[in-house]
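The following block was generated as part of the benchmark described in Methods. Ligand: NDP.
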Amino acid sequence: MSFTDKVVIVTGASSGIGAATAVVFAKEGANLVIVGRNEDRLNKVAEQCASSGNQPLIVKADMTNDDDVKKIVTDTIEKFGKIDVLVNNAGMSVSGSILNGDLLKAYDETLAVNLRAVVHLTALATPHLVETKGNIINISSIAGKMVTTSLSLPYSISKAAIDHFTRGAALELAPSGVRVNSVSPGPVKTDFFDNAGTVISWEIIASRIPLKRCSEPEEVGDIILYLASDKAKGITGSDFVCDNGGLLKIG
Ligand code: NDP
């Protein structure tokens, strides 16, 4: 699955799934564009990528800032001249509920990153993806397919919307030769829950999942790599669930 000469943008590449995905693509020879806010972490991921492949382009960007999102595409085109793969991975969860009175704030903050920025970046990258017959992978979650109390409602709403955005974009872009798919992990061992202010135990979560384990970020990266590759040339509008059986039964 060589990605030599392919240009791959990964948002949220400073941490967790995005960082692991960048390294997975780097090992296959891709030219990476790694995006996030935390420069120190981006530099560390860039070092890891460079040690197994090419030196990535770092774009420091806040996905809630429209100019930053535009910069991701302009910097990529300036440096590499094309885009082959867009991995819309950056995501977060802000706690908020109807009864607490903080639902709208959580909704606005969460949707700005998890949905609006994905829609915006996809729209900006699409003309370049049409030129290369490239593809898009959106990182969704099983939280968009089930009602969960462990994460806030806006997070689930954002991921349910990403699933439908994936299908709609896949249908619209299919005649242009651009594939669009999503990957929906269950719990993955990253900083996500810490960043969301949710106290969890990986052991307890694992004990409630059919396969009795939580995924490592690299496992998700491998699936993204496959979907982005020519081996998946017949796959579009699909959602690949990798949740250790969590959707079958958690608890
Ligand atoms: P992490 O918290 O480890 O990483 C989140 C990434 O998103 C970071 O690189 C962060 O970069 C970036 N990010 C968040 N907000 C912004 C913003 N405003 N602007 C730019 N970048 C931002 O979590 P994961 O790796 O676990 O999450 C990656 C994706 O996987 C998310 O979409 C998440 O919803 C999804 N997911 C995660 C699961 C899990 O159990 N971990 C399960 C299912 C789905 P920085 O801080 O540098 O800005």
